[in-house]
Amino acid sequence: MAHYDDDGWGMPAAGPSRARRDTAMDVDDPPLVARAADDEPARAPRRVDFRPPPPSAETPFEQLLRHWMNERHAPDVLHAQEGLLARLLDHIKKQTDDVALLRADPDSSEDEHFRIMLVQTEAERARFALRAYIRTRLHKIEKYARYIVETPEMRERLTQAELEHAQRYAALTESHFTRAVLDALPEEQRGLDDNVPFMPPMISRPDKTRAVFAHALVQCPPVHLPDGSSMEMERGQISLTPYHVIEQLLARGEVELV
Amino acid sequence: MALPPSLRTSVIPAELELIASEQLVEIIPLVAMERTAFISGAYGPLRPPVKCRVPIWMATNLKLKKKCHIVPPDWLNVEFLQGRLLLETTRPEFSEMPFRFAEIAKVLLDIASEDFQEPDKIRSLLKDIREARQAKSREGLSKLDHSELSLPNLSSMEINEIRPFFVRSMGVLTQLVRDPAGRQMEL
């Protein structure tokens, strides 16, 4: 994977990453807080902007948290975020390596230990969120394994490793069902993918009509609602609506699920 | 098995707390620390008694080791919350609150109540606001239909609370709408 040394992500150094976070802070600082910091006496106009920051101001870790929650709430499997995960994993590894180096150094002071502890705490948080995100995907991938394997559109959304897992999982469950029960049934009842009229299909697929809470991060283009009308979500608006309505907005990162 | 059954239906408050802990809060450090690069950005330098903005998880960590005081956010004081409570009880709509106010207030009040003036008063105001808002979200259920329900200014914890019931209700409404249409098609 690429090295991020020159990004100033090394532990004690604070290069461009500091500038990056600072711009992010400017955006998501509610004006009220900024004003209070200046200790300005005229606090009268209590205009508080609690709206979410636009996605461009997010740090990679915040992006991961957003994708994690999207994945948790969406009934469907979303697009894999391989680039983001790789970047974060590299970064976690770099932080851990730096910590190991500093630890090995017998001259490091009490202050150093304290900093090491904070860096480790954060690395743990990042690892936890990463795992939680991947586990959420795995859960859905196993649930819809057969559907994923036979739908090209779904396969595209998975990473290579996830797709292999889905294929193996589908094959394993199928051979298990066959050996345990189906072999003993008459030929015509052995199918695992029958489409009986008036019955739900045997292969379970994501229920896109399930309602989700969507939180608009930007001003969104209009979408069609099931009742025939159209809706334009304003930045900051929260709506409960069926998943298929906002599916495209979510794929483009214009809304997040909360 | 990838996801324990307890986590499948909804997100749990502890997870929301983890996400909220990424937000920044002002602290007055009691120890010095050089500016340090973290995964989410660079924080510091800590130079007592100069105020500094750090993520809540770091503030919690420092506070538990008695290495900082937390400066309460501007919306977490008696005066502001009293104003919001008045709005909540006199107006039909939800008043504007930070999206993750419930999580942040809980974390900060749990670990740093001595940094607040009148923490008990703040707690009871938060509880009153919560109850006023809960009543409104229950009322919102009567406006639910199968296509869309707009919930301005609802906070993350409140959404999580009403999620299971609202999502299922909308599912039932969707089925009710879809079924007559389906039958017409067959005729």
Question: How do the helices and strands line up, and which of them pair or pack?
Answer:
The complex is a heterodimer of chains A (258) and B (187).
Chain A: H1 16-28, H2 31-37, H3 60-73, H4 82-104, H5 110-143, H6 145-150, H7 152-156, H8 160-180, E1 211-216, E2 223-224, E3 230-231, E4 238-242, H9 243-251, E5 255-257
Antiparallel strand pairs in A: 1-4, 1-5, 2-3
Chain B: H1 5-8, H2 13-20, E1 24-29, E2 36-38, E3 41-43, E4 52-55, H3 56-64, E5 68-71, H4 78-90, H5 101-112, H6 119-140, E6 149-150, H7 156-186
Antiparallel strand pairs in B: 1-4, 1-5, 2-3
Helix pairs in contact in B: 3-5, 4-6
Pfam families (chain B): PSF2_N, Sld5
Protein name (chain B): DNA replication complex GINS protein PSF2
Subcellular location (chain B): Nucleus
In the CATH scheme, the class of the largest domain in chain B would be Mainly Alpha
Number of beta strands of chain A: 5
User: For the residues shown, what is the average pLDDT of chain A?
Assistant: 81
Radius of gyration of chain B: 21 Å
Distance between the termini of chain B: 44 Å
What's the helical proportion of residues of chain B? 40-55%
- Give the amount of beta strand of chain B, in percent: 5-15%
Any idea of the CATH topology of the largest domain in chain B?
Methane Monooxygenase Hydroxylase, Chain G, domain 1
Oligomer classification = heterodimer
CATH architecture of the largest domain in chain B: Up-down Bundle
- Helix proportion of chain A: 40-55%
Low-confidence stretches of chain A: 1-46
